[in-house]
Amino acid sequence: AQTVTQSQPEMSVQEAETVTLSCTYDTSENNYYLFWYKQPPSRQMILVIRQEAYKQQNATENRFSVNFQKAAKSFSLKISDSQLGDTAMYFCAFMSAWGGAQKLVFGQGTRLTINP
Amino acid sequence: DAGVIQSPRHEVTEMGQEVTLRCKPISGHDYLFWYRQTMMRGLELLIYFNNNVPIDDSGMPEDRFSAKMPNASFSTLKIQPSEPRDSAVYFCASSLEAGRGRSEKLFFGSGTQLSVL
Predict the structure, then answer these.
(1) Which partner from A9, A25, A41, B64 sits 20 to 30 angstroms from A86, CA to CA?
(2) Residues 2-61 of A with CB under 8 A from B
(3) Cα–Cα distance for residue pair B4/B112, rounded to 1 Å
(4) Tell me: the pLDDT tens digits for A63-102?
(5) Do B56 and A101 touch (CB under 8 A)?
(6) How distant is the Cα of B34 from the closest Cα of chain A, in angstroms?
């Protein structure tokens, strides 16, 4: 079974700083998807960014980018020029691309606080 | 589209009572998922459906939990009898079947906060 590990339960940075959230995963599969979801206090799960394992190029969405290291099974999220609205729980998630099993396996989450 | 709709947003009940959580997925989506979120265990997949058929219910904690999807636009998660340890946020999510140019992205509802006293 796949597992996802986020080793940083909490992080805190000043507004406008850059912050990197760590995520490692374990799988024997070669093709899969990786995601970062944001959960603000409103509780809504919001997709931040996704990566397809067969693509070597790291995904980027505005201030959010990932460092995908397939051999190391590492998938970190970098938030540049952090804003107060980035304060939230961040979840790393894995989805197999095999056999129609489209279920997400989540890490335990990292609580990120952006301080003014 | 209004997105995935869950009801109620909050539910407070007493131990032993039956609880029913409801979900309306996005129209046209092939998959529906029920997740539970707690501080101790994080986000856990309870069960998911494909074209209204349960595919994997290995995450359902015990027989007190049951889920149904009578049609493509409605699903329920029932707990009978409820216990204080069932207190959690329950999320429903839906998605299209990946491939053929479609996205595997999951769309989540706003969740139901369940408190069992």
Answers:
(1) A25
(2) 33, 42-45, 47, 50
(3) 12
(4) 999 999 999 999 999 999 999 999 999 999 998 877 666 7
(5) yes
(6) 10
